[in-house]
């Protein structure tokens, strides 16, 4: 059996694109998507299954890919990203560490992020349910973008206790909360989510993200205006940002 180093990672893909969601919307980022997830959200359209090979973009934005066998050695990924940085030192704002749920690999990330973060500041995109894993890497990330998973959208009970504990760790860095909302969202769960943020991470901003269905925003502006006001009433800053990369037709 091959020996897997603690820094080896099961990678789905590595590519360069425009961030379409959240606080860094519009920024050019490197996206590193890791395999595996601990949740099963009804709306999930992300391919996070572990596979034999990871697809690695050859040049930023080229949409041409190499296929490297998993798990990937961190040194190999680092060498590839160092080349990107050397060729276009001002192109990327940051690196988005995403999934799946990247914190499933917190031990490997803890070993690897000190080197990676010398190339790009790290934005962690997470489902906000693994607070102990976050503790391992929190000092190496600049931004934490965490979901509060609303039952109306995921089809599973919202893990309120884990989200609260997660927020209390995430506040060590720049932290914000994404709420994916859709036609079935209830006002009571929006209020509960806003109060959880207010009570555990009062400086964090909430991003209301309407579900995208068939390339269109699933909610009209009138209901989004109401929900934004409802969250603001709880004393929480709130922005409405749909998934812009869908309209741009980029990865
Ligand atoms: S947490 Fe994210 S990746 Fe995991 S199932 Fe839910 S939407 Fe998909």
UniProtKB/TrEMBL annotation:
Coiled-coil intervals, chain numbering: none
Free-text comment on the cofactor: Binds 1 S-adenosyl-L-methionine per subunit. Binds 1 [4Fe-4S] cluster. The cluster is coordinated with 3 cysteines and an exchangeable S-adenosyl-L-methionine.
Listed cofactors: S-adenosyl-L-methionine; Mg(2+); [4Fe-4S] cluster
Binding-site positions, [4Fe-4S] cluster: 37, 41, 44
GO MF term list: 4 iron, 4 sulfur cluster binding; carbon-nitrogen lyase activity; magnesium ion binding; S-adenosyl-L-methionine binding
Binding site for S-adenosyl-L-methionine: 43-45, 100
Signal peptide: none
Top-rank taxon: Bacteria
Keyword tags: 4Fe-4S, Iron, Iron-sulfur, Lyase, Magnesium, Metal-binding, Queuosine biosynthesis, S-adenosyl-L-methionine
A family per Pfam: Radical_SAM
Enzyme class: lyase
Known catalytic reactions: 6-carboxy-5,6,7,8-tetrahydropterin + H(+) = 7-carboxy-7-carbaguanine + NH4(+)
Residues that hold Mg(2+) according to the record: 46
Residues reported in the UniProt entry to bind substrate: 18-20, 33, 98
Pathway assignment: Purine metabolism; 7-cyano-7-deazaguanine biosynthesis
Radical SAM core domain ranges (all copies): 24-251
Keyword Metal-binding among UniProt keywords: yes
Swiss-Prot/TrEMBL GO biological process terms: tRNA queuosine(34) biosynthetic process
Keyword Ubl conjugation attributed: no
Enzyme Commission number(s) of this protein: 4.3.99.3
PANTHER family per UniProt: 7-CARBOXY-7-DEAZAGUANINE SYNTHASE
Quaternary organization: Homodimer.
Family: Belongs to the radical SAM superfamily. 7-carboxy-7-deazaguanine synthase family.
Task of the protein: Catalyzes the complex heterocyclic radical-mediated conversion of 6-carboxy-5,6,7,8-tetrahydropterin (CPH4) to 7-carboxy-7-deazaguanine (CDG), a step common to the biosynthetic pathways of all 7-deazapurine-containing compounds.
Protein name according to UniProt: 7-carboxy-7-deazaguanine synthase
